[in-house]
């Protein structure tokens, strides 16, 4: 547990080191180099943690299947909070927490990445972090107002990945809510038995009324 909290701290360090040069492009070169080294160090730490656990696992195939999210953390360390939530909540809450946290982290990562790719491009419409955040929100929700959009190949690649991620997360939310409502309002055998009994009583009342008539 302590090890996971330490990894969460390093994920925060990675986020700060990644975001700082993008949000403050006028930083001295030494500071930018320090941020890049911090990102590399955190990434290597996550990679080493996964590799060590993989090597020590008795059933490596089962380990790989059960720890897909851990592998994604190596690609995007910002998903570390999602990994921690997944291991500490029940299934229903875990899915909802995964969706909410993934949406936040994916939107934040995409905002920073597209701002880095677009800011200095000719004809760019995404010039500030506010523009990038607005673009990420409209893209993830498939609204697409068209007031901000990527013009570079890298930016469009980021946009494509964000749209696919947004649709996937929306599907997870929809399926989870449908499952929750289905369980919440499931009729079950008890309700069916009560319904049959009520119909029987109605039939008996009808017979009584006919007899009196």
Give the SSE layout.
Layout: H1 2-23, H2 29-56, H3 60-66, H4 68-75, H5 80-86, H6 91-118, H7 129-140, H8 153-184, H9 188-212
Helix pairs in contact: 1-2, 1-6, 2-4, 5-6, 6-7, 6-8
Q: What would the keywords be for this entry?
A:
2 domains; mainly alpha; 79% helix; single chain; 9 helices
Tell me about this structure.
The chain is an all-alpha fold and about 210 residues long. It contains nine helices and no strands. The N and C termini lie far apart (about 75 Å). The protein folds into two domains: about 1-90, no CATH class; about 90-213, Helix Hairpins. The longest helix is centred in the last third of the chain and has 32 residues, at about 155-185. It is flat. The mean pLDDT is about 80. The protein is about 80% helix and about 0% strand. The protein has helices at about 1-25, 30-55, 60-65, 70-75, 80-85, 90-120, 130-140, 155-185, 190-210.
